[in-house]
């Protein structure tokens, strides 16, 4: 009897597993899955003030979080239908590949090996923040440049490009150093504050946001040496063109809105103006009154309007979380629009 | 009739298992083809491109990834071997103390086992590292002259310098596994009939000698199998070292997987490395078993 029962159990496990096995396939876009589920699963860091950080009211906020909201607004028309999944750096690609999350908006550097099909094989959306790697040291340590860190311990997050850049910089100078690698940015900060390392390294934006949480931020400084360029971008698992196209044009939509002066406050006025004035063809196309740009992407034709209503344009998002009046002020620098001297620009909505 | 039916059931079981394995392998193959990845181990011979904070063999970032993995495997082996020694000493001591005549000793051992077994190992490791070791001042403390020097930059015992990461993993694993071994030892001691204890006590043999000569030899057959599974657990638990920045095999694999994107190959190597490590421990314990237990059974 027991033998037969265990056999039945085994068979049902087998059936369950084969059902799981077939789930991985299917050629439909994840966009349909997200709509059906009624919720976007967005991977974030959750630990970087200004980018994604838990607020007092228990909600996530930051530039990366606003992008999740923008994608949800574009796909489902509602920026609140997002489930945030906090992920560590080593976890993030696995979570994306296995389909646990739909997309990743988590301070991820766009580079060749992550993009290539022979590497991580993911697909990046346009860069939303141009960063560079730096080093944070104590002001009273007497360390002023990379060379002063010869033979010293440096706290670094594992499984990141940061680790590789650090090595490239020291190897090219021929200097020895000791990397103390942790899995998580919080541990990097703890190791540095406890005095295990003479310096900690990460993207300069992350250093600034980590320092903003220190007890005495004024005792620490970011060295002027910049070890790398770190273009940070949202991404999706490779091979889903509809989803990656949608993400790409949502980001371009945010940038174009800033270029055209469309903000969260005036988007409805602009919509009204475009409706009444058939000569404003560019604006009408952008807002989805004319043409079928949104439909081509598999989104609603006025997805840009939903996005701007939800989050405002790129400049508004930036200022909300990283502007001079925010908790983590980072000068816009490279992240200004191209016409203002930065590198942020978007191809035409045509 | 009955035998024939059970044979059919066995055949069916084999078919089910083979089908399951087939589905998994097929799924892997299909997905590898779909993503255009395919299995490849060429990345093993490319330069690793990252430094390691500690290594027993010479290592530079320009060395191959395979070499980096080997060096980190040795790091794992080193901390596992040292922890096994300390955990055994601690566990046997605490286990014997729980059956000691001295009530204070009994209470202390009970407190140790009770406390440590209730707290997750990860928390304990984080405590040892961030609170105990990194909480030390950066100027070395030297409580007994120059014999031991403690600071949050490293621990030096008789001139032998250990990193704080290594020390934290060593202490964490030893204390945690020691508590489990104490229970194994206590169980073994309880398996020896009370008469044996009373016999050596009535002969006027001291507690320590009686334990060593009379009770332990009879308890060993019950202790050893459970002890070896504790050792295997310790080896597997050592992967938590990644949480406190120790460059063990798991931490380094983690880095190579993110740098190369070769997750399946990376995990295969990781699995095989741990299999090799645990077979090593298992083999050692079986040898010990043969030496210690079988002669006892023969007499």
Can you offer a commentary on this structure?
The complex is a heterodimer of chains A (350) and B (299). Chain A is an alpha/beta fold and 350 residues long. Chain A has helices at residues 2-23, 30-37, 63-76, 89-97, 112-115, 161-173, 185-193, 204-211, 241-260, 267-276, 281-287, 293-297, 303-311, 314-322; strands at 40-44, 47-48, 52-54, 60-61, 82-86, 103-104, 122-124, 129-138, 153-157, 178-182, 199-203, 220-222, 228-232, 235-237. Chain A is 42% helix and 17% strand. In chain A, strands 8, 9, 10, 11, 12 and 13 form a 6-stranded mixed beta sheet that branches. In chain A, strands 5-1-6-14-7 form a 5-stranded mixed beta sheet, sandwiched between helices. Chain A is globular and about 65 Å long. Chain A starts with a helix and ends in a 28-residue tail after the last helix. Chain B is mainly alpha-helical and 299 residues long. Chain B folds into 2 domains: 1-38; 46-298, MetI-like (MetI-like fold). Chain B has 9 helices and 3 strands, in the order ααααβββααααα. Chain B has helices at residues 2-34, 65-97, 103-118, 121-133, 164-190, 194-202, 207-237, 249-260, 263-298; strands at residues 148-151, 154-157, 160-162. In chain B, 31% of the residues are buried. The model of chain B has no long low-confidence stretch (mean pLDDT 89). The interface between A and B is large, with 50 and 46 residues.
């Amino acid at each position: 009897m027991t033998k037969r029962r265990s056999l039945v159990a085994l068979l049902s496990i087998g059936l369950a597993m084969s059902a799981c096995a077939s789930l991985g396939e299917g050629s439909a876009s994840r966009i349909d899955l997200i709509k059906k589920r009624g919720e976007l699963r967005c991977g974030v860091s959750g630990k970087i003030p200004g980018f994604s950080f838990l607020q007092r009211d228990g909600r996530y906020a930051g530039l990366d979080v606003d992008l999740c909201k923008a994608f949800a607004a574009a796909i489902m028309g509602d920026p609140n239908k997002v489930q945030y999944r906090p992920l560590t750096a080593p976890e993030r690609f696995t979570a994306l590949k296995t389909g646990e999350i739909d997309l990743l908006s988590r301070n991820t550097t766009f580079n060749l090996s992550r993009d290539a099909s022979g590497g991580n094989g993911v697909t990046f959306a346009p860069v939303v923040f141009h960063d560079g790697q730096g080093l944070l040291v104590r002001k009273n340590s007497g360390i002023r440049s990379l060379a002063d860190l010869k033979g010293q311990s440096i706290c670094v997050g594992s499984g990141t490009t940061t680790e590789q850049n650090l090595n490239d910089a020291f190897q090219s100078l021929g200097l020895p150093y000791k990397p103390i690698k942790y899995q998580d940015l919080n541990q990097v900060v703890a190791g540095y504050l406890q005095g295990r390392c003479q310096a900690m390294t990460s993207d300069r934006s992350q250093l600034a946001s980590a320092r903003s949480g220190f007890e005495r931020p004024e005792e620490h400084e970011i060295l002027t040496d910049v070890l790398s360029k770190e273009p940070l971008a949202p991404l999706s698992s490779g091979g889903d063109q509809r989803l990656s196209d949608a993400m790409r044009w949502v980001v371009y939509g945010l940038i174009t809105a800033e270029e055209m002066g469309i903000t969260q406050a005036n988007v409805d006025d602009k919509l009204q103006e475009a409706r009444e004035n058939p000569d404003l063809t560019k604006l009408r196309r952008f807002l989805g009154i004319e043409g079928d740009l949104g439909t081509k992407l598999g989104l609603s034709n006025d997805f840009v309007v939903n996005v701007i209503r939800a989050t405002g344009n790129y400049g508004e998002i930036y200022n909300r979380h990283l502007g001079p009046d925010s908790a983590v002020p980072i000068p816009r620098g490279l992240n200004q629009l191209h016409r203002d001297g930065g590198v942020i620009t978007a191809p035409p909505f045509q | 009739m009955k035998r024939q039916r059970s044979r059919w059931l066995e055949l069916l079981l084999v078919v089910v298992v083979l089908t399951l394995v087939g589905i998994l392998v097929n799924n892997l193959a299909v997905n590898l083809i779909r993503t255009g990845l395919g299995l490849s181990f060429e990345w093993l011979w490319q330069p690793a491109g990252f430094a390691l904070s500690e290594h027993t063999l010479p290592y530079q970032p320009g060395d191959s990834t395979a070499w980096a993995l080997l060096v980190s495997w040795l790091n794992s082996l080193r901390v596992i071997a040292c922890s096994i020694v300390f955990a055994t000493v601690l566990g046997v001591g605490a286990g014997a103390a729980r059956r000691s005549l001295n009530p204070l000793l009994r209470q202390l051992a009970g407190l140790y086992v009770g406390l440590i077994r209730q707290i997750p190992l990860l928390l304990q490791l984080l405590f040892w590292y961030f609170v105990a070791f990194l909480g030390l001042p950066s100027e070395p403390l030297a409580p007994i002259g120059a014999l031991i020097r403690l600071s949050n930059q490293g621990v030096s015992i008789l001139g032998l310098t250990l990193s704080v990461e290594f020390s934290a993993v060593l202490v964490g694993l030893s204390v945690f596994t020691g508590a489990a071994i104490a229970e194994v030892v206590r169980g073994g001691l309880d398996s020896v009939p009370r008469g044996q204890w009373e016999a050596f006590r009535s002969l006027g043999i001291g507690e320590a000698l009686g334990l060593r000569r009379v009770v332990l030899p009879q308890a060993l057959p019950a202790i050893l199998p459970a002890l070896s599974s504790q050792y295997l657990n310790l080896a597997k638990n050592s992967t938590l070292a990644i949480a406190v920045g120790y460059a063990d095999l798991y931490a380094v694999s983690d880095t190579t997987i993110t740098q190369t994107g070769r997750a399946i190959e990376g995990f295969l190597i990781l699995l095989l490395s741990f299999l090799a490590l645990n077979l090593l421990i298992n083999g050692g314990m079986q040898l010990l078993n043969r030496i210690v237990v079988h002669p006892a059974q023969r007499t």
